[in-house]
Design a protein that fits this description.
Layout (H helix, E strand, L loop, with lengths): L1 H39 L4 H5 L1 H23 L6 H18 L9 H14 L2 H21 L4 H86 L2 H30 L5 H16 L3 E6 L7 H21 L5 E7 L3 E9 L6 H9 L2 H12 L3 E7 L2 E9 L1
Helix pairs in contact: 1-3, 3-4, 4-5, 4-6, 5-6, 5-7, 6-7, 7-8, 8-10, 9-10, 10-12
Length: 398
């Protein structure tokens, strides 16, 4: 339906444009014919003596005007030099002949030359065309002993049409600049939409990594362990226990996926509530003490900041369980006037040594993903040993 409506509008615009072009041609043809009628309709002895000169001037002028109109209608890109030469010849011929007996109507051709010179050429070229027309009119006035009105009036007509042509050129340039700005604005809006789509794709990719990849990877490892217990040890009871744990991990992954969807939609729950849930899940899953405290007055954050803090806490807790198992974890969420702070600290596992901890965390995608999230909202992330503890600190300006 919309395509049909657009086609109808385009057809109507083409029809309107054709009608306007036809009307424009009729007006110009009528004007040229009227100049011929006014020039040759009356006869006198003086007219007869100069008839050949007036016929030649009219024919040359008519040919030049017709060529200019055809180029305009067919949208031929004539150079300014070609236009200036053609209009200069037209101005000279018509300007000289307009002072002949009954040749006053030919000033219309000189006016056309000045109009085209002002509209279709530069200031210098248009000025030269106008000066040629004025000079030819003055020479013709001397040659034909024209009246004072003709000596003054015809140059004024040429000069006035040149000014009108310059104004037309100014309006045309303004219209072209406006059209160019509109096209650039549309291109900019298109690029902005493309950037927004890419940003949203990157955001979804981060969610897939932080939620689905983590949950499915852990579930795959658990299933492999169950298979090993059944095939190698034949311990059904232990396998059932591990399957129960795998089922719980799948349920937790589903919950995390729902939270991610809520975050993508922008209707996630409060940050402190979600970190409380993460701490509780960590206690149940790993049997590790997690102390969560809040400093300052809790306030609502943007969905992007909320998701960034949640993923930071989630990744830090996973790293704590991996590199420092059974070590207590302390989570502190601070609401300050200038920024939001999240700190996750846990004692280093001395049996593993600090070096594996550093290489394991810094070398993974998790820390990179956390930094990317925070950088998008002008936040910062630091992770490293602080005395006998490992600390992950995230900060987002308010």
């Amino acid at each position: 339906m919309i395509e049909g409506l657009n086609s109808g509008m385009e057809a109507q615009e083409r029809h309107t444009g054709l009608m306007l072009a036809t009307l424009n041609w009729l007006i110009r043809a009528t004007a040229c014919a009227l100049i011929g009628v006014l020039t040759f309709a009356t006869s006198s002895s003086a007219h007869g003596n100069h008839l050949a000169f007036e016929i030649a001037a009219y024919a040359i002028s008519l040919a030049l005007v017709a060529a200019w109109l055809v180029a305009d209608v067919r949208q031929w890109q004539l150079s300014q030099t070609t236009t200036a030469v053609g209009m200069g010849v037209l101005a000279a011929v018509a300007g000289a002949a307009c002072n002949a007996p009954n040749g006053g109507a030919l000033i219309g051709f000189a006016a056309v030359a000045a109009l085209a010179g002002g509209a279709d050429t530069g200031l210098l070229a248009g000025s030269l065309v106008t000066c040629v027309g004025i000079l030819a009119a003055e020479v013709g006035a001397i040659a034909f002993n024209a009246s004072t009105a003709a000596v003054v009036g015809y140059p004024l007509i040429v000069l006035s049409t040149f000014i009108a042509g310059r104004n037309r050129r100014g309006y045309k340039m303004q219209a072209e600049q406006s059209q160019s700005l509109l096209e650039q604005s549309e291109q900019l809006r298109t690029e902005q939409r493309n950037v927004a789509v890419l940003d949203e794709r990157n955001r979804i990719a981060r969610e897939i990594h932080d939620v689905l990849a983590h949950s499915l990877g852990a579930l795959g490892i658990q299933i492999q362990a169950v298979r090993a217990v059944l095939t190698d040890d034949g311990d059904v009871e232990r396998a059932v226990s591990m399957l129960t744990q795998a089922q719980r991990m799948a349920s937790d992954g589903l919950v995390e996926t729902r939270r991610a969807v809520q975050a993508l939609r922008g209707d996630a729950t409060r940050l402190d509530e979600q970190i409380t849930n993460l701490a509780q899940t960590h206690r149940e899953r790993h049997g590790t003490a997690v102390e969560f405290s809040i400093e300052g007055e809790p306030t609502d954050l943007t969905p992007e900041a909320t998701v960034a803090f949640i993923r930071t806490a989630q990744e830090a807790l996973v790293n704590a369980a991996k590199h420092a198992p059974h070590q207590p974890v302390q989570v502190v969420l601070s609401y300050n006037d200038d920024a939001m702070h999240l700190a996750i600290t846990n004692p280093l596992e001395r049996s593993d040594g600090a070096a594996p901890l550093l290489s394991g965390v810094n070398g993974g995608y998790g820390l990179t993903g956390m930094r990317e999230r925070l950088l998008l909202i002008r936040g910062t992330l630091s992770a490293g040993p602080e005395g006998e503890c490992w600390a992950v600190r995230a900060q987002v300006p308010r």
